[in-house]
Design goal:
The complex is a heterodimer of chains A (223) and B (462). In chain A, 65% of the residues lie in helices and 10% in strands. By secondary structure, chain A is of the alpha+beta class. Chain B has an 8-stranded mixed sheet with strand order 3-2-1-4-7-6-8-5, sandwiched between helices. Classes of the chains: A alpha+beta (223), B alpha/beta (462).
Chain lengths: 223, 462
């Protein structure tokens, strides 16, 4: 047979086989994804259970700290890996339905972590100070990317600071509630410790000043 | 014997009439500008299409195309190109051979080259002509001390083609082997190559197996592998289907009679080795390769010199494709017209397009990252160099399909080792990784640059 025709037939067979294997891998990936989503959901139910218990039994709030801390650690373990997975999808340019599902779960989980952090701080104290970065997803926002890259440097300088980043234009209700609460009109915007709001691209010094005012102990220069 | 002059303006030998349909064989190709503009329009259109579709779609089309091309090579290889049998014709009389070595400021390599040529075993008569092409490094004084060679001297540097033509006019051999001054043939190369001419009366030119000489650094080691695959595997394969389109400059052998019939080398062409090969094919002569006739050539040591060399090759390739457009997709020229030339152009265009897409994407993310804040470089840098994640669960269809060409190419590399009679070593791992990852991007950039040079009409430099 003519080698060109042979090559054409082989190409069709190989591409078809490759796509078949991809299908199997996709199934494995979906199963993996479903597992992590189920885990997040069961943790949310668990959290509701703790809240319900506190309401019904009216126990001393301080006594819940141990459970809240443990629950929060579980939330970290299930939510933060999703961020890595989102990055993997983005790096591979796989912006499909799976990616959207993971993103939704990630932001809902992160919202839970943020809220439980505030609750934990109120009930149990501690030196954790949250910084929330609001950014735009629907419109290109180079300043948001620059701001995002600056925040880890600040976290390095200021122990106890935990960074959260939420899209201000998300259609997820908890995120919309937060955007409304902080009256975010411009991105990037930063909210320090649920109180101080900085709009527009903020410099390292401005953020450090806001953190210091909220009681953070920041090193004078970057480590 | 008088060598007819090949007129680079008209593309005709003096006193001859162009065969019908071959009028466009001159250096100044009629309508070259229009063709280049047309090519540019196709490229721009392709870029627009590429920007309109997603990167994944483009990558998928590219990989399927690559798989098809690679499988063609593989099928040809399996069909018999892998056969290592070579003609061992009983040579009643070994033809006289003239080795022609043009030399321009080659003081550091020419003596070794002449020594290697002198040392080559050959049962027939062997003549060596060295043409000093107006060297200014004093190498001519060293060459003069060598016995057993004919030295010709040009007062002014006129280029490789002119130097070769000058020597070929004086050559006494029936066969003429053109050897670059930085090339060192193996001791048996000549006696292994010559029988091919006895075997095929229509054989006009023969390609030796070009290998990298004494590779030291990564760039050279990378080229060593590339040469084994290109001049070993690819050349052997396309030679099998009579699709060879080039007789590479480091060392190739021709019947002298073809220079009488077709004229000498095109003296203005920067890829005269490709031009003469296409001219031979156009006039019905065959080309073949002898993979056991190994010659070692010096290869660029730095990325800059490699870029310059490849830019010249690509510009020469584009120029000669335009010069011989009538052979393109022309069934009269068999596999050359229907496979080699279209494949050469399409892989170049695809690589350029793919590279453009990747570079523009990187440039976009780079600019958007640095524009807002120049003061936070440490915060910006990590985001610029994004590489695909290696999580096995993230294998997308395109990446998986991309693995297939990598495996097939891996087989070609293995065959290249086999043809070269070498065994893979640990020192080959890094160059191999570079060859399969960064190097195609480098070639894509160089091809884009070559096309831009042709569009801008910039002059040619050796």
């Amino acid at each position: 047979m003519n080698p060109f025709i042979k090559a054409a037939i082989l190409t069709v067979i190989i591409v078809a086989l490759a796509l078949l294997v991809v299908g199997q891998l996709d199934n494995a990936r979906t199963a993996e994804l479903r597992k992590s989503i189920d885990k997040t959901m069961s943790e949310n139910v668990e959290r509701l259970g703790v809240q319900h218990y506190a309401q019904v039994m009216a126990s001393d709030p301080q006594s819940q700290c141990l459970y809240l801390t443990r629950l929060r650690q579980k939330q970290f373990d299930s939510t933060y890996p999703l961020a890595q997975r989102i990055q993997d999808y983005e790096k591979n340019n796989l912006l499909n339905q799976e990616y959207n599902n993971i993103k939704t779960n990630y932001f809902l989980g992160l919202t839970e972590i943020y809220l439980s952090g505030i609750e934990h701080h109120k009930l149990c104290g501690g030196n954790e100070i949250p910084i929330v970065l609001f950014y735009s997803e629907d419109t290109d926002c180079p300043d948001c990317r620059a701001q995002n890259r600056l925040l880890p440097l600040i976290a390095n300088r200021c122990p106890g600071v935990r960074i959260y980043a939420f899209p201000s234009d998300s259609d997820l209700t908890p995120l919309q509630m937060m955007t409304d609460r902080y009256k975010i009109t411009k991105t990037p915007a930063i909210v320090v410790d649920d109180k101080t709001k900085l709009e527009g691209l903020s410099s390292e010094d401005e953020i450090i000043a806001a953190l210091t005012a909220r009681g953070a102990a920041c090193a004078k220069t970057a480590n | 014997m008088r060598l007819r002059r090949y007129d680079t303006e008209t593309g005709l030998m003096d006193g001859s009439i162009a065969p019908k349909g071959f009028e466009r064989s001159g250096f100044d190709v009629k309508g070259k500008k229009t063709l280049i503009m047309l090519g540019a329009a196709v490229l721009v259109l392709a870029i627009i299409v590429a920007l309109a579709v997603s990167f994944n779609t483009l990558l998928l089309i590219y990989t399927v195309f690559m798989i098809f091309i690679l499988l063609i090579y593989l099928c040809i290889w399996m069909d018999g190109a892998s056969d290592t049998t070579e003609p061992h014709m009983p040579m009643k009389k070994w033809p006289d051979v003239t080795l022609v070595i043009p030399s321009y400021n080659a003081g550091h390599t020419i003596l070794e080259c002449i020594e290697a040529c002198k040392n080559m075993h050959y049962a027939g008569k062997k003549e060596i002509i060295v043409v000093d092409d107006g060297s200014t490094d004093g190498s001519i004084n060293e060459i003069r001390k060598i016995d057993g060679i004919t030295l010709m001297h040009k007062e002014k540097n006129a280029g490789k083609g002119a130097a070769l033509n000058m020597a070929i006019r004086k050559a006494k051999g029936e066969l003429v082997a053109c050897v670059d001054s930085d090339t060192y043939p193996e001791i048996h190369a000549l006696e292994r190559a010559v029988p091919f001419f006895n075997d095929d009366e229509k054989l006009g030119g023969l390609v030796f197996f070009i290998c990298a000489a004494k590779p030291k650094n990564l760039i050279q080691r990378l080229q060593e592998l590339e040469y084994w695959v290109s001049f070993g595997f690819y050349f052997k394969t396309i030679s099998f289907i009579k699709g060879l389109h080039i007789t590479p400059g480091p060392m190739a052998m021709y019947r002298k009679s073809i220079f009488i019939e077709l004229g000498g080398f095109d003296e203005k062409n920067i890829a005269e080795d490709m031009e003469i090969a296409l001219r031979l094919r156009r006039h019905g002569w065959n080309l073949t390769t002898c993979h056991t006739a190994k010659v070692y050539t010096e290869v660029p040591v730095s990325i800059g010199s490699l870029y310059k060399q490849r830019l010249r090759w690509f510009r020469g390739g584009i120029l000669n494709l335009f010069k011989y457009t009538d052979m393109f997709l022309n069934p009269r020229f068999g596999s050359l017209g229907l496979f080699t030339l279209p494949m050469m152009l399409s892989t170049g265009l695809f690589a350029a397009l793919f590279t453009f897409w990747m570079l523009s994407d990187w440039a976009r993310s780079f600019l958007s990252a640095i524009m807002p804040t120049f003061s936070n470089w440490q915060a910006v840098l990590p985001g610029i160099f994004m590489v695909p994640a290696l999580d096995p669960l993230m294998l997308s269809s395109t990446i998986l399909v991309g693995l297939v060409p990598a495996f097939i190419w891996g087989f070609f590399l293995w065959s290249g080792f086999h043809i070269a009679g070498e065994k893979p070593k640990a020192a080959h791992i890094l160059p191999c990784i570079c060859l399969m990852s960064v190097y195609p991007l480098f070639l894509g950039v160089t091809f884009l640059s070559a096309y831009a040079h042709e569009l801008s009409g910039r002059g040619y430099k050796w």
